[in-house]
Amino acid sequence: MSYQQHSFEHQRITEEPFYLPTGDEITVGLAAAANQLPLLLKGPTGCGKTRFMRYLAWRLQRPLITVSCHDDLSTADLVGRYLIRGNDTVWLDGPLTTAVRIGGICYLDEIVEARKDTTVVIHPLADDRRELPLEKRGELITAPAGFMLAVSYNPGYQSVLKDLKPSTRQRFVSLSFRYPAAAQESHIVAAEAGIDKALAGRLVRLGELTRGLKESGLPEGASTRLLIQAGQLIVSGIEVRTACMVGIVESLTDDPDLLEALREMVSAVF
Amino acid sequence: MSYQQHSFEHQRITEEPFYLPTGDEITVGLAAAANQLPLLLKGPTGCGKTRFMRYLAWRLQRPLITVSCHDDLSTADLVGRYLIRGNDTVWLDGPLTTAVRIGGICYLDEIVEARKDTTVVIHPLADDRRELPLEKRGELITAPAGFMLAVSYNPGYQSVLKDLKPSTRQRFVSLSFRYPAAAQESHIVAAEAGIDKALAGRLVRLGELTRGLKESGLPEGASTRLLIQAGQLIVSGIEVRTACMVGIVESLTDDPDLLEALREMVSAVF
Amino acid sequence: MSYQQHSFEHQRITEEPFYLPTGDEITVGLAAAANQLPLLLKGPTGCGKTRFMRYLAWRLQRPLITVSCHDDLSTADLVGRYLIRGNDTVWLDGPLTTAVRIGGICYLDEIVEARKDTTVVIHPLADDRRELPLEKRGELITAPAGFMLAVSYNPGYQSVLKDLKPSTRQRFVSLSFRYPAAAQESHIVAAEAGIDKALAGRLVRLGELTRGLKESGLPEGASTRLLIQAGQLIVSGIEVRTACMVGIVESLTDDPDLLEALREMVSAVF
Amino acid sequence: MSYQQHSFEHQRITEEPFYLPTGDEITVGLAAAANQLPLLLKGPTGCGKTRFMRYLAWRLQRPLITVSCHDDLSTADLVGRYLIRGNDTVWLDGPLTTAVRIGGICYLDEIVEARKDTTVVIHPLADDRRELPLEKRGELITAPAGFMLAVSYNPGYQSVLKDLKPSTRQRFVSLSFRYPAAAQESHIVAAEAGIDKALAGRLVRLGELTRGLKESGLPEGASTRLLIQAGQLIVSGIEVRTACMVGIVESLTDDPDLLEALREMVSAVF
Amino acid sequence: MSYQQHSFEHQRITEEPFYLPTGDEITVGLAAAANQLPLLLKGPTGCGKTRFMRYLAWRLQRPLITVSCHDDLSTADLVGRYLIRGNDTVWLDGPLTTAVRIGGICYLDEIVEARKDTTVVIHPLADDRRELPLEKRGELITAPAGFMLAVSYNPGYQSVLKDLKPSTRQRFVSLSFRYPAAAQESHIVAAEAGIDKALAGRLVRLGELTRGLKESGLPEGASTRLLIQAGQLIVSGIEVRTACMVGIVESLTDDPDLLEALREMVSAVF
Amino acid sequence: MSYQQHSFEHQRITEEPFYLPTGDEITVGLAAAANQLPLLLKGPTGCGKTRFMRYLAWRLQRPLITVSCHDDLSTADLVGRYLIRGNDTVWLDGPLTTAVRIGGICYLDEIVEARKDTTVVIHPLADDRRELPLEKRGELITAPAGFMLAVSYNPGYQSVLKDLKPSTRQRFVSLSFRYPAAAQESHIVAAEAGIDKALAGRLVRLGELTRGLKESGLPEGASTRLLIQAGQLIVSGIEVRTACMVGIVESLTDDPDLLEALREMVSAVF
């Protein structure tokens, strides 16, 4: 049995990512890091949570390891497991263990999707013990000062069954994210899609209209990401309204009534 | 432990497939490929989604790897797994990993049927990171420019339980497919079944009638594929109405009332 | 790792099976085979679906491999799996793969009982691709001309949960089976049980009466198989009414009221 | 890989078991065996189904292999599985396969408790094919003439979820068992417990009274087995009413009202 | 493959355990043992069922093996399993098999908690066959005369889902246990906790009051064990009412209203 | 096969932890230890249960092993399992077994989250037997005098499905924890966050207000831990109200109405 260094390619972010703050989130994030407190990011799809984590990792000059959570993500997927190699058994650290060992940032995206055991495994890491028990190795790792835990979820479409328990939530400093203000979002869309400010502004206007449809049953309005995507299609020569339909509208819903309402919004804006 | 090149027979499509466009789908598909954006194809059974992907792969001159999704399709089925070979352990890339490595197109058919973890594993591939983490190998692959992700589903019979999450949907350029127009569908049926235009036209008329039964409880009307199949049976000498019954009607439903209504439609057309 | 030829004893049917057609099913079955189209057989228990497949296999002179589907039948059960043999790993083809390799007929009996993944694995075999991907071997087999896929189910007692999806159904030529007409069924019962026509006729009359009890809550009436069985018991010296009770009635239900109604039917016929 | 003969101790019943027939069941059982038809035994707990199978096995001079079915009984438990032995893999026949190979009787007790796949695996054995496919060995065994399949269940407390499908039921000759008539039951109880006829008669009277409580919510009345047990306790010196309470009443229910009613029955009889 | 003697430390009880009978249970238990009949013990938590089994084992001078049943207890946990040891496979007997081999008493505590398959595996041991089939070894063990099977459960909080089937219950001699009478319970509490009779009497009075709260929603009143525990805390210097609160009341419920009612009972008694 | 000493890093607490008792809990804990009785700690999130266990371990000078329970925690996770190492199989003690072997304290945090089998495995450890059966090793360990078992849970948000069974509860001495009194909590918050008494007092006032929102649907009010966290952020330069929002309010809920109510509480206090 031997130990095998984990070679997961954690991201060392070497260039400053483009990030426009919408509030105190950078100051709070840095203060949480300074106090070795974990972060919980809340907010809708594509509003900048992942982008914020990349910016924070750059500011802190720490490697960032992102894990997309899902129904079948188990403790072993996070912590590590034994693998058989020929006649030998080797231990392979999981991404969370790697982050703890190297003093990096572990970002668990959509934490509520994971199995409950994964949320419990982070408990001793998320209070002042800052410990990770590797029960299968009989080892207890204490996180170095540089380690940071961050988790995210979208409160907009959580079910009761997939809520964080109070005993989990109450271990985190919590940042609530919203879509950027119109001027700021136009700036982002123009820069990322390579279009002019006027077109970007109209796409943002369309985005805001879609976000007003929540009461009509649309689970979520268009993310900034979709607006950028529509802009890119336009640059590639797709007609504006077609670009809005395939790049934004059809990606939002299959409901005929909502599709019709969205189509009218496209016509109203363009 | 050794690495073993995956030999999955991805299709290199060498001859132009027969495909009649019904809208802007080819232009949009090429623009999505140019911008390295993933594609989501929506539409009813047998309306040409798979055929479109074959055409697009031919146009882009890229290999196409198709995966039919189902309830038990796991991340390992897509990404790969370790296998024991004698005294050695070898890694076998899954179809998604193969597509990423060779810069091909990976087409996940009926994505909503897959387990939720499979939809999450495509998230980092479907945004601007274009990365595939092979957690069990501790490896992170960045997709080459040629790689394209495409997924499909049928919004007609999705349940609430099997819907795509907004955080998944909002990563895609979305194309909505419908049955071709009558003249076009007749052209296809005649060509594929080897029958004359008049007979093909009547089969298409029958197909259209069946598609109107959705309100009466028929989950889906006859696909173009069924119309072609009936035509083939007629060419083989089966009497026209029998061919319509066994080739179309009995493949649509078991409900006695619907069967009776469909039988009358056959009598009305032939 | 080595490849091991699968030695599953597929049936080569050397003598013409006794089969009385009730409609066009033979012509349609041969036309489907000629056009390389898959077959879907619908109908109640014991009405001759399996017998028809044996006849068709004899007519086509192809080996027949039958798989009885059930809740736990997985893709690996159909397609094959790796097995460890001493220090070696060998691949064992499943019955579906064997059928594809040898160009035989694979008949999936009661397909709706199988897990959903098994219905998806037959999709690429059931359209014009006629391909079987062996994902674990990284191999894609194209079916030879002789291969035929056939599936069956009983629409009489399907639940909504166990219905075939339209995307599955619409790949098949569909034959609907019913119980044979009285004269024909008498002929079969007399021949198979070795009894005279008059007794066979009375058993068939009893069978028809039981099939009328569906509205009273009997899930299915007596199959031809049960009528033959009662006949066999009579030949073995069991008193006629006792033979009808143990050979037919008690095999249909445990419900006291239905048992009483069936007992009266026996008395009325004998 | 080697083949290892299964050494399961099937019972060869060398002495005639004590069995009092209550109807035609012996004649029917022998006729079913003569016609190679499988048997289905229905009836309440402890009414003699297992005893009948032992008698029949003795009459037919065939080994009897009994399998008590339960929720987790899988196909492999019946058919067999590969086991790793040192560096070798050996196949171990399950009890059903053993019965087929040696031409014995396989008796699946409480078949409805088993998983659905186990009921399907017996289908080809229970019709005129009389075949057992060992899919994992790629082998198909045809049952010799001596092989007989028998299954049992208790229709008294089946749920809808645990009912036999018509396609399973309609493969069997079905025998319905009831408690023996009073005189006969007294004879059995006296013989088995070693008590006099008068005491046995009173125990049987008590048993009959308990069987009348079904309408009051008692799932099942006292089996002959319980009456014998109470008799044995009396022989061992336990006071009669105490023996009835601990040997019969407390084994029937925990419901206070039913316990009170049963206690009064004991007082009424003794 | 080798056979490895199981070294489970079954208890040989060398000193007479302290046990005060509350009825005929000892005579009945000995009679059951003499007739090789299995025992079923019913009664509330901590009323002496386990203690009775220890006493009976001492009286019979047989080793006692106790298994606490739970949701995940499988047949293999009871019967045994193959384990890989280096290059060899050894069989390890489970506790039930050990008890059968050595002719001891196997006591399955809270049998209804176990998976259904475990209740079926005891069926052939619990009737006059007294056999244990080790299906994975292809072996059938007949229990020696000394073997005794005993099971227990608490009818007070069983759900319908976790009830013993009649076919299981009707194999046992059934003993119903209740809390001991007040004088007797005081005697036990005083002896075990090392307190005087007066204090013990007041604790027993408190226990009886709590047992009257069942109608008010308390699932079970205080067991004798809790009364002893409170006595022990008092001996250790904890104030009487505090000892009753932490040793009895808070261990019974979390319901505020019930806690208040229990607190008043404590005040009333002390 | 060899035995491998478990090297789990159990905590030996060498410095007196900061702990302010809120009642008799220390005396009771020491008395329970003296009588070898197990402890059950009840109370809301972050009220000091874990801290109390650390203090008690320090007072008793025993190592403390903490296990955070979750849905998938199995008996093997607690007790130990066999692992394959090269050609050998070694046994690895789980944390519970380690605690028993070394005579330490095993603290199962949030016991009700664990699978039911884990609660049953502690039964023989939690009564006067004080035994731990290692069924897979065929070994029975008797706990040394120093061993102590402690479990905790939060009665505030238990569901009926996740309640401790009476047979489990009634094995424990039970301590009920509440939030400390205001003066005491201010003392703790000031000391831990490094802020002055006045600010700490205001944070505690805010905490108390949030705990009054339970009737309005907030599952749990702010824990002392959250108040400390907000204090730390303030020390790091975050504006007071922002620190309360990200450090307390947003960690409590996502409900817009509750968030608004909490925001007003912040404004009222600061």
UniProtKB/TrEMBL annotation, chains A, B, C, D, E, F:
Pfam families: AAA_5 (PF07728), CbbQ_C (PF08406). Keywords: ATP-binding, Nucleotide-binding. Residues 185-269 form the CbbQ/NirQ/NorQ C-terminal domain. InterPro entries: ATPase_dyneun-rel_AAA (IPR011704), CbbQ/NirQ/NorQ/GpvN (IPR050764), CbbQ_C (IPR013615), P-loop_NTPase (IPR027417). The keyword Nucleotide-binding applies. The keyword Nucleotide-binding applies. Residues 38-172 form the ATPase dynein-related AAA domain. Belongs to the CbbQ/NirQ/NorQ/GpvN family. This is Denitrification regulatory protein NirQ. It comes from Desulfofustis limnaeus. The lineage of its organism: Bacteria, Pseudomonadati, Thermodesulfobacteriota, Desulfobulbia, Desulfobulbales. The gene is nirQ.
